[in-house]
Design a protein that fits this description.
The chain has about 70 residues and is an all-alpha fold. The protein contains one helix and no strands. The termini are far apart.
């Protein structure tokens, strides 16, 4: 599912109409949802949660910070 890039991992996600603001841009409140979806897809691509026999995998995020330097 992930694509090869020079740095990090690129995971394409679908953006739905309700993810957009009235101007057609991704609403800032949806960024963390997109990060969580991408993280889950990445974990699944590594085999976590791939079968009923697999041990359940849990992760906890203490904090997520997004800083907007420019509008």
């Amino acid at each position: 599912m992930s694509e090869s890039v020079d740095y990090g991992v690129l995971i394409p996600l679908d953006v739905y109409f309700d993810d957009l603001d009235p101007y057609g841009m991704l609403h800032n409140g949806r960024y963390t949802v997109m990060v969580e979806r991408a993280w889950n897809m990445y974990a699944f691509s590594l085999g976590f949660g791939a079968s009923d026999e697999a041990m359940p995998t849990h992760y906890v995020v203490k904090a997520v910070t997004i800083v907007f330097n420019l509008p």
